[in-house]
Amino acid sequence: MGKALRPSGWLVLLYLLPGLAIYSFVVLVPILSAFRYSFFSWTGRPKKSYIGLDNYAEILRDEVFWHAFWNNVIMTAYGLIGQVGLAFVFALFLMSKAVRWKGFHRTISFFPSTMAPIIIAFLWTLIYNYNYGLFNEFLRIVGLERWVQSWLDLSGPIVLLVSIPLSWQNIGFYTLLMLAGLAAINKEVLEVAELDGATGFRKAWYVMIPLAKPTLIVSSLLCIANNMRGFEHIYAMTGGGPGNASSVMALYAYETSFLRFRYGYGSALAIMIMALTLLIILIGTALLQRRRGAEGVEH
Amino acid sequence: MGKRSAVLGLSTAAALLLSACSNETAPTNEAASGEGEAGGGGKISITLMHRYQASNIGKSPEDTAVLDGVERFKKDFPDVEIVEEQLQNEDYAIKAQALAAADDMPDVFIVPGSWMTNFVDNEIVLQLNEELDKRPEWRDGYRAGTLDAGTREGKVFGIPIAAGPTHLIYYNADLFADIGYDQFPATWDEVMDAGRKLADKGVNLFSYGDKSKGYAMSSWISALTDRHTGPEWTASILSGGGAAFTDPGFVNAISIMSDLSKAGYLNKDMNSVDGDTMVSYYFEGRSAAFVSGIWSAMNVVNNAPEAVREATKVAVFPGVEDGKGDPLASSGGAGVYYSVHAGIAPGPKLDAIMTLLEYMTGSQSAKLMAEVGGFPAYDPGEFDTTKLHPVARAAYEASAAADATKIFDLWFDASIVEVINTEIQGVMSGSKTPAQLAEAAQQAYETFLAKP
């Protein structure tokens, strides 16, 4: 842009002001006020009393919260495998020459991502339904009647069961990301690799994964962030039940504030969620970056 | 060029901010002018926010009766403007919470019993004793105990609407006759025996649906606990008088539920289906009975297949051995109240509000509610029962037969209620024991007692 046309610094700021104002109003201000409320015992009414760090001390002792945190961590692990991992495999298939109707597959696999989480949750509640569910019907047809279960009432594998719909919904999104990442790989590199005899699995492992690493990292971080703040699917499918078995941090914070009317403690939980999520993302980034650094030296 | 775009940017930003502001302030201005009563030529304006909806008229007795009261009031007092907002249950809870936090409640609003302590402590609701004393005939028309959950230390803060019991057993007499019971089993041993015999036929004794968390508490735990402990225990818990959730009575009550679940007499998906599915299992003949409040009576009348509807009878839980409670009692009492904003001063506006409350919940409204199958808090006296289906009449009579015991979810603090609501799912699914639930409830109770 020519110098004459370039707006001055303060003008740029001015242009940004409306967006910035809205952003701070809907994001920054609530976070800051949540931070302030987290030092109060507050039932959501005009009266509140300052209690210092008591809320945070209670969080440290709160087994339900840490159970919910652990569920988030497990969900994230399932997510990395079921969303990012599978999406990468899908993307490789869609890149390979063996697959026909690529556009069709791409569209269909992306379709669930366009639906609201509540709809997905409702769909899967029906699939898991004890009497009419597809899942149990399938088991009956293949003769595994003794496996027929009221799936969402099982406390044991409940986190896995609620993670499946999440993967089902998000796979398409990550597949698209991967496809974009893979498409950016220089075709000549791949051709050379093929000439050298690297096909199928070897080509993927030794050539494509290292070259698509930036995309993989971004996808993983997105996946971590999404799963750490997961809420809607669980809320609609199990409400955190049975008991607290499938509760996640965001759901617990919601219940604490809006059902138990402990807004102060709920705010402290929200701040804690943010801190923990940031921490996990920082650790994740550090690990991935270091690996990349180390490999960089190797090459 | 630069200047022009700067001006444009500024004015856009200003417009955005201004429109945001005007949106925010508009309702407040309106409310303010309303509170200023005579401000606009003597016209009184009352803001009313509740969870009764015109779309439910004819389906729900409460909505029908209350909204009929509003209409009658509008007709009789054309000078009084009513700014009404009808919300769905969940929406109402969210909106009311937000408005209460901002101290911006309308003039008249609904307060569930479980919120009352909180609203009273925070001085959001107006004490109505003097106003009620001016209208003794209306005041004394409410059934005994229905004002209680809206009363704190003798001061009335809420006017009750309906008082239906939350615990009734709707059972299919034909299915019970098939296994040799000509009425609902009279002891818990017989209940378990019936459960076994029904299970042999592939039918669940009860269908049960607690996905929304809260069903167990309002329809089962409140009544069952009272069978064991009697009302003294509840009173002691409420006053902090030494009773504990770990007391045997409460634990035994939970154990009965856990035994039913463990024996397999309930539907397997009890924690993942809601109340509607629970009732439809009963309609489909998958279960021989279900436990619910009086609100399900009209559901049976309107929606059950004819054979099921004709076979449906109403009972309550049997008593327990050495139980201290009344074996006829059901948990009940008024659940939700109309309250008035604390900022309203005595005067013509408050008079108008009290009259509106009488129209919505008093004698005429109560008669209408009873006639369409509800159980009003105001005693309707004699009313036309000819239009009532036998199931609805049986539910009404069972409701009127015994004193209501306290519904825990309305009386206990929300923090304790939530813990029990959550833990009971664990107990019913077999991952927690009744003792563990009691332990967790007690912990929440002690946290609650310790906080100012």
List the helices and strands and how they pair.
The complex is a heterodimer of chains A (299) and B (452).
Chain A: H1 9-37, E1 40-42, E2 48-50, H2 54-61, H3 63-95, H4 102-110, H5 117-128, H6 134-141, H7 158-183, H8 187-195, H9 200-211, H10 213-228, H11 232-237, H12 249-258, H13 263-298
Antiparallel strand pairs in A: 1-2
Chain B: H1 2-35, E1 45-50, H2 61-76, E2 81-86, H3 89-101, E3 108-112, H4 113-121, H5 129-133, H6 136-139, E4 151-152, E5 155-156, E6 159-160, E7 168-172, H7 173-178, H8 188-200, E8 204-207, H9 215-239, H10 248-263, H11 275-283, E9 287-292, H12 295-303, H13 306-311, E10 312-315, E11 330-332, E12 336-340, H14 348-361, H15 363-371, H16 390-401, E13 404-406, H17 408-411, H18 414-428, H19 434-450
Parallel strand pairs in B: 1-2, 1-3, 8-9, 11-13
Antiparallel strand pairs in B: 3-12, 4-5, 6-12, 7-9, 7-10
Helix pairs in contact in B: 2-14, 2-15, 9-10, 10-19, 14-15, 18-19
CATH class assignment of the largest domain in chain B: Alpha Beta
By DSSP (H or I, 4+ residues per run), the number of helices of chain A equals 13
Number of domains of chain B: 2
Shape of chain B: globular
Mean pLDDT of chain B: 86
Helix content of chain B: 40-55%
Instruction: Give the beta-strand count of chain A.
Output: 2
Q: Helical amount among residues of chain A, as a percent range?
A: over 70%
Kindly report how far apart the N and C termini of chain A lie. 40 Å
**What is the correct CATH architecture of chain A?**
Orthogonal Bundle
The tally of helices of chain B reads 19
CATH topology of the largest domain in chain B: D-Maltodextrin-Binding Protein, domain 2
Span of the ends, CA to CA of chain B: 63 Å
Uncertain stretches of 5 or more adjacent residues of chain B = 1-41
From the alpha-carbon coordinates, what is the Rg of chain B to the nearest angstrom?
25 Å
**Rg estimate of chain A, integer Å:** 24 Å
Keywords (chain B): Signal
Pfam family, one (chain B): SBP_bac_1
Protein name (chain B): Raffinose/stachyose/melibiose transport system substrate-binding protein
Organism (chain B): Paenibacillus methanolicus
